[in-house]
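Notes from the 1:1 (GR / supervisor)

We went over the backlog. Supervisor wanted to see one worked example end to end before approving the batch request, so GR pasted a single chain during the call. The sequence is below; no edits were made to it. Supervisor asked that the structure be written out right there so they could see what the output format looks like.
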Amino acid sequence: MAITIHTLRKLKQQGKPIVALTAWEYATTQLLDETADLILVGDSLAMVALGYPSTLPITLAEMLHHCRAVRRAVHRSLMVVDLPFGSYQTGPAQAFEAASHLMKEGGAEAVKLEGGYPRLVETVAFLVEAGVPVCGHIGLTPQSVHQLGGYRTQGTSEAAAARLLAQAKDLQEAGAFALVLEHIPSELAAEITRALAIPTIGIGAGPHCDGQILVTHDLLGLSEHAPPFVRPYADLRGVIAQAVSRFGDDVRTRTFPT
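Structure output shown during the call:
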């Protein structure tokens, strides 16, 4: 049975953790779709798949390209796609145009936006009213990395924590169906999770969120430098390097093909 935004709300109500992972291409997504409740075509693919130094350079056209590939593999999970930097910040009209491209041409079922400032909350409300399911994202917002001064833990002071809690409530009121909490203290994530009726999905936010998401490259041990909160479940970087090295040796010694 296909998972919807309403399924995620029910999982929260039942106390069942939500499993979320990122995707960027067809073959891997087929495997993710067997387990994940939510698959995010995240703008993190800018760094892990396209080699950019941050998420900022990726374009809407590039996101759409990967969105289409993932869509062909997803049959069960809810498919959410990041709106890239520069595609929604000027207001609701720009955001709706970007979201409609991803939904009509890429098959996205929902979009994710970063931030909780008042104008962004207005944009979320507009999108939801227009029929676009929206997932919020607060805490460490990678598209604001230069303004934040790096990939640092957010919400560590009393004032910052209060601001994030207020943003979470505002995004829920605007109609967001879920909220990603990134790189914030575990106690704050627990407080936000208790305060909301919508599910929270953590990444580097401790164990008390309603679900967890990781960048799949980090999960599989493919990333050169993974965040400190990641637990790799495989070492595919080492496996692939070994396989390629063995193939190279066999070709050079003429033992392949035999």
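Supervisor's comment: Residues 5-219 form a domain with the TIM Barrel fold (CATH 3.20.20.60).
Batch request approved.
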